């Protein structure tokens, strides 16, 4: 292991897509609700359309066009657009609420828990997610994710890739930036973390969008891993 | 169980004295260091003197006399005074650092882990402590404390009993204040929590100061318990 990696003490994990399978979880909830409303829908297409509204909404908050609000509220605003786009007006208010809450109990990727357990023996494990604190606490409880610490960008009332969100990790865990490593399936997240001095681990999640394709980083990351078990092996945990 | 308690979803725990035995942990560290420096000391008296400097330092930060700083720094400032008072100048810089870090790995009370495990089956468990985030994460890891979420007054750069520290719990965990309960061995903490609308549980810790005495609340709390197992029984967990 290179010397730069030997000093890492804290791993900060992106959550949606990296630790948990948002697409699988949202498809499952849509598939459960649809027959109750006599709706036929392409659950994968609805899930993807919903998720694609995520970054534009976050950008508007980061740029000050929208006041800061927790992710649940942005999920709801995006869902309202998706309902119109896909003609899902039969969904009730309770259904929409249930769909927003589906993001609080998404299924972990198959390797996630075993990988986190191994990594935790050597590193402090934190989340660093755009999900709100309550969402992340619910998600970790529901899936049994063994994090030492839940950190959300809510703590600085902004969203990744705002530099202040990454600075939370060394600041609150009392280590230097180079003693922390961001773990994510998304190059934009790692690039922003590296700009704040964090080490970076890219984890391939080819089924995040159900396609089998991975868009890898076009810059140098410290580690590339196939899953959390591979990451643990590479980090000596 | 009264209706007011049935709506509680989140338990927020004071840590020093309530979950962990700070006195036992500090005595153990002092007792380990003293012979290395050929020092004879009354470890209990030193621990008590150190802890008694805690509230006055916190008050000075809350009142703006001192700039905000994490508890480690206040522990160090208090320790420097104790060294002079007890003539402990033989302690080295490394010893003093080790003593400050002893607060990061204090032993839990004997009932604490089993009680938290039971309570967690029914409630979201958070810390709400004057210890910094890094300290609390280290403490929870070292003792294996099964908290869902580490919250520190560091998140508002103040100390209990500042009202803003209690407001963190409902705000970040997305519940109403009356859906949260502060659990503490110290009446001042519960009184300040109640003023922010939280429910209150007083836990008797007669050995916190090694005396067997308990100074109970002189106001009405929602629950009084002998330990965390008794608390779990009373809360139906």
Largest sheet of chain A: 5 strands, parallel
Given as residue ranges, the uncertain stretches of chain A (5+ residues, pLDDT < 50) are none
Number of domains of chain A: 2
> What strand order characterises the main sheet of chain A?
2-1-3-4-5
**What is the name of the CATH architecture of the largest domain in chain A?**
3-Layer(aba) Sandwich
Report mean pLDDT of chain A, rounded to a whole number: 97
Broad CATH class of the largest domain in chain A: Alpha Beta
Distance between the termini of chain A: 12 Å
| Fraction of residues in β-strands of chain A | 5-15%
Structural class of chain A: alpha/beta
Number of helices of chain A: 11
Oligomer: homodimer
The coarse silhouette of chain A is: globular
* CATH superfamily label of the largest domain in chain A: HAD superfamily/HAD-like
Q: What fold name stands as the CATH topology of the largest domain in chain A?
A: Rossmann fold
Series of H and E elements of chain A: HEHHHHHHEHHEHEEH
Structure description:
The first copy, chain A, is α/β, with parallel strands linked by helices and 237 residues long. Chain A has two domains: 3-21 and 106-234, HAD superfamily/HAD-like (Rossmann fold); 22-102, Putative phosphatase, domain 2 (DNA polymerase, domain 1, Orthogonal Bundle). Chain A is built from eleven helices and five strands; from the N terminus they run αβααααααβααβαββα. The first copy, chain A, has a five-stranded parallel beta sheet with strand order 2-1-3-4-5, sandwiched between helices. The radius of gyration of chain A is 18 Å and the shape is globular. The model of chain A has no long low-confidence stretch (mean pLDDT 97). Chain A binds chain B through residues 70, 72, 124, 132-134, 137, 140-141, 148-150, 154-155, 172-175, and chain B through 70, 72, 124, 126, 132-134, 137, 140-141, 148-150, 154-155, 172-175.
């Amino acid at each position: 292991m290179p010397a730069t990696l030997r000093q890492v003490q804290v791993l900060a994990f992106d959550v949606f897509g990296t630790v948990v399978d948002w697409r699988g979880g949202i498809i499952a909830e849509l598939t459960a609700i649809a027959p109750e409303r006599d709706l036929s829908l392409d659950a994968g297409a609805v899930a993807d359309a919903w998720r694609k509204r995520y970054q534009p909404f976050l950008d508007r908050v980061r740029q000050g066009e929208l006041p800061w609000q927790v992710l649940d509220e942005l999920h709801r605003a995006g869902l309202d657009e998706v309902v119109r786009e896909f003609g899902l007006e039969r969904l009730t208010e309770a259904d929409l609420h249930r769909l927003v809450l589906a993001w609080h109990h998404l299924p972990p990727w198959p390797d996630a828990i075993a990988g986190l357990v191994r990594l935790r023996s050597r590193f402090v494990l934190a989340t660093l997610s755009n999900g709100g604190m309550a969402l992340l606490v619910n998600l970790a409880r529901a899936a049994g994710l063994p994090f030492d610490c839940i950190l959300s960008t809510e703590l600085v009332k902004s969203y990744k890739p705002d530099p202040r969100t990454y600075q939370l990790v060394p600041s609150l865990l009392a280590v230097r930036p180079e003693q922390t490593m961001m773990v994510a399936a998304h190059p934009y997240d790692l690039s922003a973390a590296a700009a704040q001095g964090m080490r970076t681990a890219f984890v391939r999640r080819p089924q995040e969008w159900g396609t089998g394709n991975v868009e890898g980083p076009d810059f140098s990351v410290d580690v590339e891993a196939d899953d959390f078990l591979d990451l643990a092996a590479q980090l000596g945990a």
